Amino acid sequence: MFSLPAAAAILAAYLLGSLSFAVLISRTMGLADPRSYGSGNPGATNVLRSGNKKAALMTLLFDALKGYVPVLAVVLFGARWGLDPSVAAYVGLAAFVGHLWPVFFRFQGGKGVATAAGALLGLNPALGGAVLLVWLAVAFTTRYSSLASIAAAFCAPLVQALVWGVDASLLALVGMSLLLVWRHEGNIRKLLAGTESKIGQKAAPPAAHAKASAHPPRHVHPHAPKTGHGRKGHRK
């Protein structure tokens, strides 16, 4: 199944996945680094917490495309290079892993939800659409992006196995799903504790900034009379 062209396609997909568009788009638009606020995750949901919907939408689109484009390229043109159809799934996994551990950003990446969705849509539009519907249903019902992502991750390999059967690509889907759930470990703890942020909830201001805003500095007029120990007593 694997060959030199397959290895080249997988490496190229990993490098494409390593482009952290949440960080790049935020820099371009003069926004704070998404790794510095909210959940600290460089992804569309956290960028949305900045209040900039355009930046969040662009992040979502480009993160999905870096999973979709390499997979679709293998699906459409892989046969010319002698690639097995299942290689497309591993190319999608490589792009997903690139998002999680990007070589260009010190291996500090996001959770890969949009990239995984893009890879599934490129691999099998029907499968990707079914998983997307699961995500939308859970997200609109609970307003928790993390819970929707976890539910969708569990459904992807299950739907693939039940509808299209078990093949060589299923292992890649299982690996992608397990990694995605593992990356949401912190979110799972917050969900259980009832402290998980909901979709559209803005990030809280930094503690120092919030404290300064709550207690603004007191300005003293230069000609105001001094009081207390600073005032000398009058002689009788």
From TrEMBL:
Feature: compositional bias, Basic residues: 216-236
Record field: transmembrane: 6-25, 55-81, 87-105, 117-141, 161-182
Cellular location(s): Cell inner membrane
InterPro entries listed in its UniProt record: G3P_acylTferase_PlsY
Membrane topology: Multi-pass membrane protein
Record-listed E.C. numbers: 2.3.1.275
Pfam families, alphabetized: G3P_acyltransf
Catalytic activity: an acyl phosphate + sn-glycerol 3-phosphate = a 1-acyl-sn-glycero-3-phosphate + phosphate
GO cellular component: plasma membrane
Source superkingdom: Bacteria
Keyword set, alphabetical order: Cell inner membrane, Cell membrane, Lipid biosynthesis, Lipid metabolism, Membrane, Phospholipid biosynthesis, Phospholipid metabolism, Transferase, Transmembrane, Transmembrane helix
Record note on quaternary structure: Probably interacts with PlsX.
Function: Catalyzes the transfer of an acyl group from acyl-phosphate (acyl-PO(4)) to glycerol-3-phosphate (G3P) to form lysophosphatidic acid (LPA). This enzyme utilizes acyl-phosphate as fatty acyl donor, but not acyl-CoA or acyl-ACP.
Protein name: Glycerol-3-phosphate acyltransferase
